[in-house]
Amino acid sequence: MAGSGVTEDSISPAATPGRPQQQFEVQEPxxxxxxxxxxxxxxxxxxxxxxxxxxxxxxxxxxxxxxSLFAAAVLHGLDLTIVAAAIPSLTNxxxxxxxxxxxxxxxxxxxxSFSFVWSRLYTRTSHTSGPKWTYLAALCIFELGSLLCTVAxxxxxxxxxxxxxxxxxxxxxxxxxxxxxxxxxxxxxxAIVFIVFGFKGDVGLISRTAxxxxxxxxxxxxLMLPAITTFLLALQWGGNRHPWTDSRIIALFVLSAVxxxxxxxxxxxxxxxxxxxxxxxxxxxxxxxxxWFTACTNATLxxxxxxxxxxxxxxxxxxxxxxxxxxLPMLIGITVGGLLSGVGISRMGYYNPxxxxxxxxxxxxxxxxxxxxxxDPDAKVPSLLGFLGVAVGLGIQTPTIALQTVMKPADLPMxxxxxxxxxxxxNAVWIVVSAALFQGRLGVEIAAHLASAAGGGGGGAGxxxxxxxxxxxxxxxxxxxxxxxxxxxxxxGDRLRDVLLGYDEALTQTMYLPLALTIAxxxxxxxxxxQSVKKKQS
Length: 538
Fold this sequence. Notes:
By secondary structure, the chain is mainly alpha-helical. It has three domains: 55-214, no CATH class; 218-269; 278-538, Growth Hormone, Chain: A. It has 24 helices and no strands. The longest helix has 44 residues, at 412-455. The protein is globular and about 75 Å long.
């Protein structure tokens, strides 16, 4: 790294091509400050014209920088899947089924709402040391959220997600779900320390950051957030807490539509450089198709993991750790599918065949998961999960490769942000929908199986007694007086099989949702443009 002083030689960037451009910012005007000015004005071509004088960290600082990125990547990976393993434990602790959809959707909701803001902030500070402080700010906010989840006294404070095996091990070891969120604290702290010492900072950045923030569409972000929230509330409450025709449900849908309309109008009237979601990006065919495809694939995996974990712990009676191990074939399958598609795309030069393969195979795998039953062999569900993982893995990275092929480099960050928005919104919306479906069917199916058993017990007083037990048990389950994994302990041996059959049937009907999502992947597959990756590279 260069020294801290400014010499005569450092006045000319061309004379010192290996030094970081921060040294030249005290000279006005210079090549680097002119490039920054173009960036502030929203010039979409600044990537192509920037001086090639970037100095990369070496030695210890390089490894600190890489370690910080690795720690943050681990955090991100954990926070996508861990809560599924904790769902039965969370319902046991908080005694409510109403919030199971929000444990994951709240995280995805906020991630979707702010994905464009972070993308803009990274892009507009990319020619200064701004990304370092942006990265640190994001990590600090994440750490605060993890701390709040770790000490949460009620389920309304939760809404963050992580990884099935790690989550299951922590729950079994600590005898509580809180370790799933507490593990984020040391990992995040390590990432912060590594990035502080691994990346060079700029103490004069504050004034420029204030200028960047004034360029953001803050109002657009805060129009999108309540629009998505009201939409999710309507989906969760409709048909369960209130009828679909209830005035409150209708009002939520109307309010969501009005807010989304206001957001869309604001994007049209703002300058291209200030819009949260520039219209020209949205109009690109591969961007919209990729966002749809990504939303379907990610929601398929999220909903499947959510309810198969509940199946393992609630119906099969496995521990959190054991259920995490049963989910391992799906994770391995995703990795294998991704590797196969990566190698295949590099050889063939086209990504579309792998989107087609995923679109054909994923519905088959998801459909087979709806055929599981209480008496199936233990290996059936993990095997089908592995099949689903490979099928979805074949196409899961193709939208990103498609955008890298068809988009200009200056537009790519916003295109990738839109894919991230599709992924997180898909998770948020469809997990809430699946939770509403599961809650609606759980009581109905358990009641039906208990009533059938009571009706076959000889009628008369036996049937009346069975009906009383049925009513008490169904009320206990639906009001959340017991958690999902405590139902087995509540029911005696005579009734356990009937309850588990109802439980299994409710989960099976919920699994039709991932099947529908895999079928919907065909829309994104059909509308993605065919272009050669090799041609773009040449």
